[in-house]
Amino acid sequence: MATDMQRLVGTSEDDDEEDMEMDVKEEDDDEEDDMEKHIATPPLVGVDGLIGSSSNNNRFHHPQIHEQVSIPGGGVRRSRPLEEKERTKLRERHRRAITARILAGLRRHGNYNLRVRADINDVIAALAREAGWVVLPDGTTFPSRSQGSKPISGTSAAVTPPSSQMVPQQAPLTSLRGISSGYRSPVDYNASRMKGVYVPNSSPYDSSSRGQSQISPALGDGGEPLDTQTLIGGSVESVDAKQLGVINVKSELVDPDGLLKQLRILKSLNVDGVTVDCWWGVVEAHAPQEYNWNGYRRLFQMVHELQFKLQVVMSFHECGGNVGDDVCIPLPHWVAEIGRSNPDIFFTDREGRRNPECLSWGIDKERVLRGRTAIEVYFDYMRSFRAEFNEYFEDGLISMIGVGLGPCGELRYPSNPVKNGWRYPGIGEFQCYDQYLLKNLRKAAEARGQDFWARGPENAGSYNAQPQETGFFCDGGDYDGYFGRFFLKWYSQVLIDHGDRVLALAKLAFDGTCIAAKLSGLYWWYRTASHAAELTAGFYNPSNRDGYAAIAAMLKKHGAALNFTYAQLHVLDQQENFSSALADPDGLAWQVLNAAWDYGIPITSENFLPCHNRVAYNKMLDGAKLLNDPDGRHFLSFTYLRLNSILMERQNLLEFERFVKRMHGEAVRDLQQ
Question: In this predicted model, what pLDDT tens digit does every residue of 243-284 receive, in sequence order?
Fold first, then answer.
């Protein structure tokens, strides 16, 4: 038993022997009390498993002489005579018998998933895990918020909840293309991310034991019942600004009852799953490698009980200050402290303005984050998530991991920050003026043999300039000269290299699970020669060059899906006010999608801004379903932004339900509103 304790709990032989002798001394004290009372008592069981002799006839022993041994710190201890060793063996037999009864009771009444030959260590570990602690195979135990040293994968590091918290596994998701002869698309829907169609088993959170929609009667519509026998999954940007207070900055689930009601409604609308942003600034907020996943664990358990699929985004950027943001989640406090003394860890524009929305890619390999590089910080965070929620990977609950690669989680430079005064349709500014990226640029210029090229363009204008107002982006401008081509190639290659490094580690951390990278569509000035808005964001895509093929090749290398932000709805209104912006969202989308399809990359998408009217929904459907495509290509999933109180309004829900049905390929009558 001592050997088992050392192996599973990690105690030393000396500690174990001292504990055993303390047990013996306590038992002798109990016996002396019993002799004074001269009464027979049954065997005693203490909290630590201490027991007395199994026979009352053995209570009176001959006096024994014990050698007193001094120990450090004062006091004495006794060596164990032969009879005490025999009593120790007897105590161990009783201990095992008690353990067997405990295990039997836990299996029968508590539904704990304990192995057949489990011992007391397994019981303690199961109880500790249920209480929110992490117990590693060697017995190392710590709160789940400080698990930085946990291994990447393997069942040994998994935290398996009691089976009482588990629900029967659902049938595997079926691709919509295989459901009927008609065209269908598997769709993941964020506050309705829809990925596949399935009929879940009954759940304690079900609003109905039948899989039919309850929206119409619940809202008093009085219309014909809506046929929603197959469930589609909805995805919630829970921690994002997209819904206030789902998980707060203390990593606590706020208003679980209200969230549960909304999720139940999504379930009745046949939504497939939910998507959650796991914010770096919440989980690792106060100290390096001290992770607090408590709020997310509660949220994931709720999602699991509802039998939704789950897509999770590793969000390494701040939330707040951009279009659609209505809360503020900054980067971790300890990162901000480093930034105050070394502001070059953030992206910097030509005027020296820092952007603390995310870390500069110049420190990907620089040990400036308390002895770690930025890449190591991201990897440790992803390893911690995998170890904390390994059981959800194993049972298929987590179907996709989105990997944050820049501002707003997108693979791009923060070239158009609203906080710095940018407004649509400004061209933005290059963001390569921190000391680390400038050092990288100097090396590239020296390697090219042109040392004086170690600088950014001097005539690229300001955030809100237009291409024709600058010498760099105008037709025939410097962007297409020798220096311009060198600079833009270097600038875009830094972006691709960053994505390559982070996705390589994400693939390692989430082996066996689909990973995805998000790409934003910067559609304004697309019908000009320079494509200025794309160039400042890091996409080297002028009219005479394909800037997305290299990105698609990088994604293909890591088996990553492409999450392409669907921005066409936003442009419907913008084109009226900025007709001179020469925007072409359809042309940009077609180029990006074809680049991905040429490499066989799955594509997911989401709407750019919240919308609740039929015109907007139809626009999203046209973009996601591509009904006229001769090859039958379509998006793998779609994310609807976002789950909030506005979506829960009666008319909006009815429109949304119609949208979900059509996204699933169901025939829906186009009735006048």
Answer: 435 888 888 888 888 899 999 999 888 888 999 999 999 999
Cα 277 → chain centroid: 6
- Other C-beta atoms lying within 10 Å of the C-beta of residue 457: 23
DSSP structure string for 389-420: THHHHHTT-EEEEEE--SGGGBSS---S-GGG
> What is the pTM (predicted TM-score) of this model?
0.65
Alpha-carbon span 205 to 209, nearest angstrom = 10
Residue 412: C-alpha distances to residues 267, 395, 551, 592 (Å)? 34, 34, 11, 14
C-alpha to C-alpha distance for 187 and 197, rounded to whole angstroms: 8
Instruction: Determine the 3-state secondary structure of 290 from DSSP.
Output: coil
The 10s digit of each residue's pLDDT in 274-330 is 999 999 999 999 999 999 999 999 999 999 999 899 999 999 999 876 655 567 899
Give me the catalytic one of 410, 429, 534, 657.
410
Q: How far is CA 184 from CA 40, 191, 193, 237, 659, in A?
A: 78, 20, 16, 25, 13
Say if residue 572's pLDDT is above 80.
no
pLDDT tens column, 387-425: 999 999 999 999 999 999 999 999 999 999 998 999 999
Q: In DSSP terms, which residues pair with 187 in a beta bridge? A: none
Active-site residue, selected from the candidate residues 318, 357, 366, 606: 606
Q: What is residue 369's three-state secondary structure?
A: strand
Strands of 331-374, DSSP E: 346-348, 354-359
Please give the full DSSP string across 455-476, using - where no structure is assigned: S--SS---TT--GGGSTTTSTT
Would you call 410 a catalytic residue per the annotation?
yes
User: Can you tell me whether residue 558 is helix, strand or coil?
Assistant: coil
Question: By the 8 A CB rule, do 557 and 500 touch?
Answer: yes
Q: How far apart are CA 351 and CA 354, in angstroms?
A: 9
State yes or no: is 130 an active-site residue: no
